Amino acid sequence: MAQAPDLTARKRPSRTGLFLPYILLLAVVLIWSAGWFWIRGKAGSEMDAWIAREASAGRNWTCADRTITGYPFRIELRCASLAFSRADSRFTLGPLTAVVQVYQPRQGILQASGPFHVEQDGLVADATWTSLEASFHGTSDGFTRASLAVDGPKVSVTNAAPQPIDVAAKHLEFHARPTPARFATEGAVDTSLRLTQAAVPVLDPLLGNTAPVDMALDATVNQAAVIRTGQVARELEAWRRAGGSLDIALLSLAKGDRRLQAQGKITLDDEHRPAGQIDIRAAGVEALVGQVMGQRFGAEKGALIGGLVGKLLGGGSRRQDAEAAATPAAAGDPSLKAMPPLRLTDGRLMLGPFPIPNVQVPPLY
């Protein structure tokens, strides 16, 4: 008689399904790691090729002790110092780090430590700061935004005429973006600059006090897209020939009890000097005009001229004030009074019909 099968015997279940997720995870990690190291190698070779192309064009870059790290999700480029030189200028910068995400290669962040030293056409400038961070959001055919934020900047410019320039501030911010509907056709770029609690000794005699300056500037740089990384004189000339201009939507300065807002347009003339007109509204008009005119006619006559201008603008130009108050530069501050326009023409700086004494506007290149 045949023996009945043992129903209690069961086939032992496979444990492959138990380990499959871990096997797949390990495979993903290995593939991602291989991809990251390939991207790192590609970034290094692309950088070497770019440096070689720049050198062949006369622009020499040196990234000391270069390292590329950031595994697993970032690419971090570190330089112990950065140096640049070409025929008309050179600069050096302290340690810096540039970071991009592997999955967002067109968006980058740069952090740099000072000091920064630059030499350009006889001018020498040095800068330090407590922190500096820049960011860039690029696209396949340009960029959408670029920003710079600096805490505690200090800048010193030597060999500047007529005297050295020193600036120290609490905070600086700069932002740029393509002008909507105008970048593709006119190469226009909107810019915004903010400077808070800045000590600018060169302005103290002109504005009559030693209080720190708060400054805001909103402007559009037309034909900015023609500017490349060539020599400054060559790029500025290309910008001028293309019809480049700086349209100032709002320039705001506050220094103690002196306040000023302005708007206007600046270009370069055939002699490569800034030219244009800036419409100004200010608080403390009498003192401001008196300070400027006093340098030409003496303190007593300068104060008299300032008083006359203040009375004319305060009482005799109400229609002008009403029209100017409607402009963006005066929005929200009706206490500001219209001043004569500030004009740059033929290398001179004019306040209305009066040339500002001891001020010459030299060619930029």
Helix content: 25-40%
Poorly predicted residue ranges: 313-322
H/E series: HEEEEEEEEEEEEEEHEHEHEEEHHHEEEE
> Class by helix and strand content?
alpha+beta
Tally of separate domains = 2
Q: Looking at the structure, what is the overall shape?
A: elongated
What distance lies between the first and last C-alpha atoms, to the nearest angstrom?
114 Å
Oligomer: single chain
Short description, anyone?
This protein has 365 residues and is an alpha+beta fold. The protein has 7 helices and 23 strands.
In words, what does this structure look like?
- The protein is an alpha+beta fold.
- The protein folds into 2 domains: 74 residues, no CATH class; 247 residues.
- Helix content is 27%, strand content 43%.
- The chain is built from 7 helices and 23 strands.
- The strands form 2 sheets. It has a 16-stranded antiparallel β-sheet that branches. Strands 1-4-5-8-9-12-13 form a 7-stranded antiparallel β-sheet.
- β21 and β22 form a beta hairpin.
- The longest helix has 41 residues.
- It holds the Pfam family DUF2125.
- Keywords: Membrane, Transmembrane, Transmembrane helix.
- This is DUF2125 domain-containing protein.
